[in-house]
Design goal:
With 196 residues, this protein is mostly helical. It is 83% helix and 0% strand. The chain is built from 7 helices and no strands. α2 packs antiparallel against α7 (161-194) and α5 packs antiparallel against α6 (136-155). The longest helix is centred in the C-terminal third of the chain and has 34 residues, at 161-194.
């Protein structure tokens, strides 16, 4: 089996894994939207509350990533890449709950790093899926939004807690809406994959 065949098999596996678990993308998007809306509803929230909101979101997002990875472990040898992404989210979520008294700068750094890594992972997945599913541009857009958000936070690490709250809330809502759209695109693509 040559490299081209391996690449095609990986693309097909990713498309099948996403289409089987489209509801997890939808859940992830709805969680992001809920996080963003809650952040806007409580603009006077303390930084500790913001940390806990973010921790809950990262934990749920990581668990969803792990479920996606484990559900495809029998079909692919490289399922561990998705598992690594999910474990990173879980680790960030747990770290948030274990050390909620982190400074605003510490919070900004690990939120920024998480957003960049998540965004790059999504862009790579979209590029691999571009020949298999339609609407892969949504996944690329989600990834680009994540990377830009991460770099924005890195560029403005000294932003006030309220400014940080608005930036994170806006990112979460846009990210969530794009994931919800992607979930429905993947769901419709699943019908095409299952047809002979």
């Amino acid at each position: 089996m040559d490299t081209l065949d391996i690449s095609r098999n990986t693309e097909h596996w990713l498309a099948e894994a996403l289409s089987r678990n489209w509801w997890l993308l939808l859940l992830r998007g709805l969680c992001a939207i809920a996080f963003g809306v809650l952040a806007y509803m409580w603009p006077g929230a303390t930084l500790a509350t913001l940390v806990l909101f973010f921790g809950a979101y990262a934990l749920v997002d990581g668990i969803i990533g792990c479920v996606l990875a484990v559900s495809g472990r029998k079909e692919r040898a490289d399922w561990w890449v998705l598992l690594l992404w999910g474990l990173m989210g879980i680790a960030v979520g747990i770290l948030t709950f274990v050390a909620p008294g982190l400074t605003a700068l510490g919070l900004v750094i690990y939120i920024a790093a998480w957003a960049v890594v998540t965004g790059v992972t999504q862009i790579v997945a979209a590029v691999r899926l571009r020949k298999v599913i339609k609407g892969e541009w949504l996944l690329i857009l989600v990834g680009v939004v994540s990377v830009l958000f991460g770099f924005l936070l890195m560029a403005q690490p000294g932003a006030g807690a309220l400014s940080l709250l608005w930036i994170i809330a806006a990112y979460a809502i846009v990210f969530g809406i794009l994931l919800v759209l992607l979930a429905f695109k993947v769901r419709s693509a699943a019908r095409h994959l299952t047809q002979p």
